[in-house]
Amino acid sequence: MSTDDQSELFSEPADSEPSGGPAGDSGRPLAVRMRPRRLSEVVGQDHILGPGSLLARLVAQNRFGSLLFYGPPGSGKTSIAEAIARETKSRFVRVNAVMSNAAELRDVLGAARRVPGARTILFIDELHRFNKTQQDLLLPDVEQGVVRLIGATTHNPGFYVNPPLLSRSHLFRLEPLSAEAVAGVLLLALNDRERGLGETGVTAVPEVLSQLAVFCDGDLRRALNALEVIAIGKGGPHEITPDDLAVFARERRIRYDADEDEHYDTISAFIKSCRGSDPDAAMYWLAKMLAGGEDPRFVARRLVILASEDVGLADPQALPLAVAAHHAVDFVGLPEAELTLAHATLYIATAPKSNSATLALGEARRVLAEEPVQSVPSSLRDKSGQASKRMGQGQGYLYSHEFPEGISGQAYLEKPVSLYVPKQAGAEAAIAERLRRWASLRAGRPGNILAKEGSKTPESTK
Q: 290-319: string of b/e by CB count within 10 Å (b at 16+)?
């Protein structure tokens, strides 16, 4: 890269107009023209920009280091970065990780070193797209303060940003904007004659703008771009009506990225709603996943797991029903398989709950890990083959079916351990009562004594 090319890296100083010039700049989308020019104009992120907040104090004192903004599309990550650069009179270098590479990063950082007094802010959009090597390239100059990094990402930085870079940065999470906040900006854009649509004469009642905001799911950029399309679509002054929004209602896209944060957050909400016996919430999250294009087999697998993990013996029919639903999804396919998933979801959400199987397995694993491993008692060992018989394996075994209620009183562990504790929910309450009766029967039967003394006992003829 030549010296002239390098100088163009600093073509967006903070005292210029990096995010939106005058209204005459018709080549820029409305969402770009309406970006906040200062932090006080940012809407919907009061938890990080409100009075007395950490970020507001750091910017006011111009004493911040590297910042990471994590949030959904259209929540204001780029706008906040540009406003910070403007308010601190810093040079603003923009890099998009999707289109950039290590060579460009080296050129950007080298140019920043040659103007050490410029207080350069390096803004990297989609930071999660940089691989480990590219992120490591930033470390020396971030550490020395050559650049102040502001990274923006829609992905959880804990999974996608290298720990050394993450540890050198303040992390701020941005939330999706409320419909009210989005509608307020839309109204401002309609009336703004300098940057917005004020010169077009287009109007809209608050209810219409609120509905458009709802369709855009907290994405302000998407809402402003939609407003611009509607406003200029008819041409000339007019009032936007509910009919004008019909196309956006039909084409509404649910924010749902498969195998990324939204995927994991939504399935987590679905699982916890089923576990918490809230069928309404479970159906809502199911519908969101299906509308977002989730693999129905993934949902079906989670239902099978829920049937054992959280319903268990409280309703033994939950597992076969969930397994049947999984097979039906493969057999039928979408869209009809949505009914099968709804059926299984409602069954599991409304079933009595017990995690006794989960707890019993966990306790068994703990005992195996922390205590001596028990040998199989001789009376329970396989007696097939002459060698086994000569060693006396299987002698003393009490065939359960030859005792009342199938309880012989025989011990099946050398050292008894208590692992399974039944719950008093649904069908498992009957299991708990049955186990209490069997315990009393065992106490009164001399099976263990007979086995130890080698007395003649009933044996299986099988």
A: bebebebeebbebbbebbbbbbbbbbeebb
The residues near 343 (Cβ < 8 Å, ≥ 6 apart) are: 325
**DSSP assignment, residue 374?**
P
Place of tokens 């219409």: 208
Separation in Å, CA 71 to CA 99, 224, 226, 263, 361: 21, 18, 21, 15, 39
Measured in residues, the chain has a length of 462
Which DSSP category does 262 fall into?
H
Question: Quick one: which of 223, 219, 75 has its CA closest to 153?
Answer: 75
Which of 1.20.272.10, 2.60.40.10, 1.10.630.10, 3.30.70.270 is the CATH number of 261-350? Answer: 1.20.272.10
Report CA 240 to chain centroid distance, whole Å.
Answer: 36
User: Tell me: the pLDDT tens digits for 414-428?
Assistant: 788 888 888 888 888
CB 69 within 8 A of CB 96: no
Indicate the pTM of the whole model. 0.63
To which residue do tokens 């090319």 refer? Answer: 5
> What are 27-69's pLDDT values in tens digits?
788 989 999 988 888 998 989 888 888 998 889 888 888 899 9
Q: Which two tokens stand for residue 454?
A: 């080698």
Contact 346, 306 (CB under 8 A): no
DSSP single-letter state for residue 381:
S
Class level of CATH domain 179-250:
mainly alpha
The single residue listed with the structure tokens 């956006």 is 248
What is the DSSP secondary structure assignment for residue 28, as one 8-state letter? S
Looking at domain 3-173, does it have CATH number 3.40.50.300? yes
**Phi, psi values for residue 15, rounded to 5°:** -90, 10
- Contact present, 72 and 219 (Cβ < 8 Å): yes
**Domain segments of the chain as ranges:** 3-173, 179-250, 261-350, 380-453
